[in-house]
Amino acid sequence: MSSVEKIKSNRYIQNIESWRWMTSLVLKGAAQTLATVGGGSKASRPSHVPENLAVDFNFTAIDCSETDIHAGWRKLFDKPDIFWTPQNGGHWVVTRAEYISTVMKTPDVFSSDEIILPKGAKPIRLLPLEAKPSEHGPYRAIIAKRVTPKAVTEMRDGVRALTIEMIESFRAKGECEFVEDFAKRLPIAVFLQLVDLPHDDREKLLEWTEVAVRSKSSLQLMMAFLHVINYLEYWIRERRAKPGDDLISDIVNAKIDGKPLSHDEIQGMLTTVLFGGLDTVAAILGFMAKFLAENPEHRQQLIANPKLIPKAIDEILRLHGIVNLSRSVAQDTELGGVFLKKGDMIQVPNSMFGVDDRATDEPLKVDFTRPNIAASHAAFGLGIHRCVGSTLARMELTMFLEEWLTRIPDFAIAPGKKATTVAGQVNGIVQLPLRWPVS
Ligand code: HEM
């Protein structure tokens, strides 16, 4: 096949208009990033930031991130409760549950219109995440009706079957690379089910989203982002012409106050669901498998009493917060005695919330019978933007624990190998070699 024929046969790159739109987005993003971080240099300390609150902290290069990213985050408890760092455009970091809760529950003062660091680095407005409180409800409702408890229950059997199929594909080998073979694959298959897209697209999406979330090369990142958006573009057009019973059709054909959503709004919503539902679930699956591989007594407890699984999910989420997003300060204000100026960025790491000893007794003790576990963490966020997909995420994690522990009850990190975790606005785990006995 000639290269022209190859291009023609690839339905995802035929739409020149989409490419133009996307390229302008990416160029805008690149220009904003350069303007904000000055090509990686540190920001100067603004005059309203006292010297004793300035700490050089870079969330992309946390200590311990190679093997235990959460231990790295916990070191921040030695710093002031609220401090400022010159890294990533310059921003505040809140380390204590009390203040994280205030920031996340006061959206008029701590605005979600910028949640990614560095400020302005992203070419697209993520919806409903970055919607103002007054406009947020209708965007959220469009997604919410696809992931209600009833809708999630209806997906359960399909997700269970997928989980079993994946586990059985490597069980007899006695080993797997958990992240590659399972953690990344389950959420993408569930996403494809939610949006009713072809299963065969799984590998392609996996490759693009992985690069878009983790790559340190801006060119690779830009290309991956373009691929994902272009892929979604194709399906937006398809579902506009032929609506089906799926989330893309809902978003594309939704109206707010009688008006259809704009192109940017549609892309912003689909991108949020795609990235919000893939990397997060993949990360917690990885942290969960790592914890159970390293803690046989907790594993045995779940095998002996599977009724503990829902509580175990919350207890593991409490210890392994995933998302470390930010807010922008919408008006001059004060938090914990610290003056914050309008326009400042403030990071609220969920990684810190559940392990703060001022809020949780013996926070490093793992106890699946701890009272009120679900209320003692903020892994799904707090306030109006609290994760709309949490019921779906919990169901995926339940399917994993139920089916994995039945089929592979005895497993450990492969001897001589190690898990590798990574720091970021979403904590991740990139390698988890597991091994188990086979008869
Ligand atoms: C264990 C997995 C997950 C974790 C840890 C997680 C975490 C979060 C957090 C912390 C937020 C709030 C962010 C903020 O306040 O700025 C959020 C919001 C959101 N999540 Fe999740 N999430 C997970 C799974 C999912 C899934 C499976 C979906 C797919 C539907 C999803 C879709 C969303 C959406 C659309 C929002 C925005 C809600 C709004 O702005 O009203 N998430 N998630």
- Indicate the low-confidence ranges by residue numbers: none
Largest sheet: 5 strands, mixed
Read across the widest sheet, the strand sequence of neighbours is 1-2-10-7-3
**SSE arrangement, N to C:** HHHEEHEHHEHHHHHEEHHHEEEEHHEEEE
Mind telling me the C-alpha Rg? 22 Å
Q: Under CATH, the topology is which?
A: Cytochrome p450
Highest-level CATH class: Mainly Alpha
Bound molecules: protoporphyrin IX containing FE
- At CATH's second level, what is the architecture? Orthogonal Bundle
Tell me the number of structural domains. Answer: 1
Give the helix tally: 16
The rough form would be described as globular
Q: How does the helix and strand content classify structurally?
A: alpha+beta
Estimate the strand proportion: 5-15%
Keywords: Heme, Iron, Metal-binding, Monooxygenase, Oxidoreductase
Family: Belongs to the cytochrome P450 family.
Pfam families: p450
Protein name: Cytochrome P450
SSE topology sketch:
Blueprint: H1 3-9, H2 16-37, H3 69-74, E1 82-85, E2 91-94, H4 97-105, E3 110-111, H5 133-144, H6 149-170, E4 175-177, H7 178-183, H8 185-195, H9 202-214, H10 218-241, H11 247-252, E5 255-256, E6 259-260, H12 263-294, H13 296-304, H14 309-319, E7 326-329, E8 333-335, E9 338-340, E10 345-347, H15 350-353, H16 390-407, E11 412-413, E12 420-422, E13 428-431, E14 433-435
Parallel strand pairs: 2-10
Antiparallel strand pairs: 1-2, 3-7, 4-14, 5-6, 7-10, 8-9, 11-14, 12-13
The chain binds protoporphyrin IX containing FE.
